[in-house]
Amino acid sequence: MKVLALNSSPNLDKGGTALLLSPFLEGMREGGAETEVHYLYKMVIKPCMGCFRCWFETPGRCFQNDDVKALLEKIAASDIVVLASPVYVDGMNGVMKMLIDRMIPLIDPFFVVRDDHCRHLPREHVVQGKIVLVSVCGFTEVDNFDPLISHVKAICKNMGQQFAGALVRPYGSSLPHFKKYDIPVDHIFEAARQAGNQLVREGRMSEELLDRVGSDLVSREQYISVVNSSFQRLLDRANKLTE
């Protein structure tokens, strides 16, 4: 089984997105999958021009010469594609959205009706696989991921892929700092690892594991107090530098 993970965090392998993605992929490898990770911020990804030349002039190929060509080949050949993006403003970040828009060469131009909805068919060489979402955000409520989850589900329908679930973690980038306050967080990463293993072995992830990944660690009031104090220290430091 081939698994392709696309990490769109500008913090690459050091950010909260990678913090959640790493144990998830570890579990998939333990389950027997072959995993590959690409960091989109290290790649040249131009925006879609909306010209549809990939449909009519060079079917299946975009005319733009950048890193997307190689990525599309890997996406088409993967059994599972993991979209790993932080939430900034109620959805996936910019570089991930640019790549999604550039995936149009993977589908045929002709309209079909699927599930009582106007769609396109994937090209013959595209594996009919699964798409998984991995995401972190700074806010405390899990429902901050709802717009992104709905978006990814719609992408799956449009691309003829199966939505296999979402690992989402509120205040994900803060997890390493919780150890300073003796707040256990290892169970979060263990649940992510188990979810990856389960997806490979059983083709699904249990709601119990996904809920554990996004579970509360501290009260909202506690978290807001600590974060705001940290923000204030950063502002005070910046003000001193400009005095």
Protein model, in words:
With 243 residues, the chain is α/β, with parallel strands linked by helices. It has one domain (2-216): Rossmann fold (3-Layer(aba) Sandwich). 42% of the residues lie in helices and 18% in strands. The protein has helices at residues 16-30, 53-56, 68-76, 94-101, 146-159, 175-178, 186-202, 207-213, 220-242; strands at 2-7, 34-39, 80-84, 107-113, 118-122, 130-136, 162-169. The strands form 2 sheets. The chain has a 5-stranded parallel beta sheet with strand order 2-1-3-6-7, sandwiched between helices. The chain has a two-stranded antiparallel sheet with strand order 4-5. A hairpin with a 4-residue loop joins strand 4 and strand 5 (118-122). Helix 1 (16-30) packs across helix 7 and helix 7 packs antiparallel against helix 8 (207-213). The longest helix is centred in the C-terminal third of the chain and has 23 residues, at 220-242. The radius of gyration is 19 Å and the shape is globular. The chain starts with a strand and ends with a helix. The model has no long low-confidence stretch (mean pLDDT 94).
